[in-house]
Specification:
Layout (H helix, E strand, L loop, with lengths): L1 E6 L5 H11 L4 E4 L6 H11 L5 H25 L4 E4 L2 H16 L10 H9 L8 E6 L2 H8 L8 H17 L4 E5 L4 H17 L2
Parallel strand pairs: 1-3, 1-4, 2-3, 4-5
The structure holds adenosine-5'-triphosphate (ATP) and ligand LXEULUCI.
The site of adenosine-5'-triphosphate (ATP) has 15 residues, from helix 1, helix 6 and helix 8.
Length: about 200
């Protein structure tokens, strides 16, 4: 079963992902962007470039996703593992959807009518939809504060448009997403996530 953790920068995904490793020692834990491939390295170069081309950046992230799927996710699912990924396709839908929304304002004829839908469509033939996605819900100001504004995405204004996109995704697929309040203590957030995960494992 493929389970993904999503939310704004600083919402606590990595803290939860690390906490889950003690609870589910047999599971495969992975992340996007990948941190052990040249595809992931290319993505991190793009993140560090405040002037990166937004469309090129989308396809760098998507290339990293394709390699992540074929090298890590699919083999683990074929073994029957529980796979838990810290970020996955929804991050692209929400983040690159927001970046491309801003880009479209000045793109003239190249403007995308609905950037989020465009990014979803790019993934449709190549990706695997998670069975459960846990959304750690936190307001953009607290998220930016917790994240410490270390990269170009971690600004409250940008995160507000990312949050709007996440809300659209939750509305589209209410059965796949479970919302967990990320304002709680780290321990309470982890318990909320474990409860959601146990529920999904039971109905499997
Ligand atoms: N529930 C919580 N309450 C308060 N602080 C938290 C909570 N969870 C995590 N933090 C703190 O917030 C910061 C960001 O947490 P974390 O790295 O887990 O977030 P993230 O969602 O993975 O961020 P990013 O997407 O930027 O990697 C860390 O300093 C972490 O200790
Ligand atoms: C997978 C993915 C990530 N991002 C952004 C979100 C973060 O600001 C950075 C790095 O992620 P991390 O979890 O903080 O290490 O990349 C993105 O814009 N699109 C994506 O698909």
């Amino acid at each position: 079963m493929l389970v993904t953790l999503e939310g704004l920068d600083g919402s606590g995904k990595t803290t939860v992902w690390e906490g889950l490793q003690d609870r589910y020692p047999e599971a495969t834990f992975t992340r996007e962007p990948t941190d052990d491939s040249w595809y992931g390295e290319a993505v991190y170069r793009s993140i560090a470039d405040g002037d990166a081309d937004p469309l090129a950046e989308l396809f760098l992230y998507t290339a990293d996703h394709a390699a992540h799927l074929s090298r890590v996710v699919e083999p683990a699912l074929e073994r029957g593992d529980l796979v838990i990924s810290d970020r996955y396709s929804d991050s692209r839908f929400a983040y690159q959807g927001a970046t491309l929304e801003a880009w479209s304002d000045d793109a003239g004829e190249r403007a995308l009518e609905d950037p989020l839908e465009y990014v979803v469509d790019v993934h449709e033939p190549i990706s695997i939809v998670p069975e459960l996605t846990i959304y750690l819900d936190l307001d953009p100001e607290t998220a930016a504060e917790r994240a410490g504004t270390t990269n170009k995405f971690e600004r409250a204004e940008y995160l507000a448009s990312v949050q709007e996109n996440y809300e659209r995704l939750l509305e589209r697929e209410p059965d796949r997403f479970v919302r967990v309040d990320a304002n709680d203590t780290p321990e309470a957030v982890l318990e909320g996530v474990v409860t959601a995960l146990e529920g999904a494992l039971e109905t499997k």
